[in-house]
Amino acid sequence: MHKRTAPHCERNKQPILEKLAVYFKYSSQVLEIGSGTGQHAVYFANHLPHLHWHTSDMPENHSSIHAWINESQLNNISPPVEFTIGCDPWPNIKVNAVFTANTTHIMQPEDARTMMELVAENLPEDGIFCQYGPMKIGGEYTSESNRKFDQTLKASGFGGIRSLDELKKWGNKMQLAEKIPMPANNFLLVWKMKK
User: Fold this and answer.
1) What pLDDT, in 10s, does the model give residues 94-129?
2) Measured between alpha carbons, how far is 21 from 29 in angstroms, rounded to an integer?
3) What is the pTM assigned to this prediction?
4) Long-range contacts of range 2-10, CB-CB < 8 Å, 24 or more positions apart?
5) Three-state DSSP class for 37?
6) What is the pLDDT of residues 185-194, one digit of tens each?
């Protein structure tokens, strides 16, 4: 097993943790969509012991996630399940919270839409979805660096930075409870199920 490290995870893990400690305070079972290297999962599970953290990702990322989990020896984190948005069904895991970071702009638009719809369909009434990453607000980039980043993403075959209006439309069974500015021109979006 090969443990990978992503520099951006090291930079953003503490600011994200501070918000998750607030918004996941009453949650117990969290599904992370796109656990990547596994860094976030281990860091958050270690600092939020009241949560059980369920990791998921494409199979090619499982080795690193396993390596991080095995090294941590935490008992409130589960090994990754195979979950590729647009290919796999929603995992057979009962959760009341969902987290994803830096996935929405990597996905193709149709997969980003599918993710929003799946989360809305599978969260319980009191469920919370925390979504981290760059967003366009009112159809506009929030910084010049994000505009350039979006060009790079699209040139590399990725879907690109999504508009908040798109996400609201796609996840219309949820309401956006908070839009929190985060470091490096990112946001943490906090979605709750509509009553």
Assistant:
1) 999 999 999 999 999 999 999 999 999 999 999 999
2) 14
3) 0.96
4) 2/63, 2/64, 2/67, 3/37, 3/38, 3/64, 3/67, 3/68, 3/71, 4/37, 4/38, 4/64, 5/37, 5/39, 6/36, 6/37, 6/39, 8/102, 8/184, 9/36, 9/37, 9/39, 9/40, 10/39
5) coil
6) 999 999 999 8
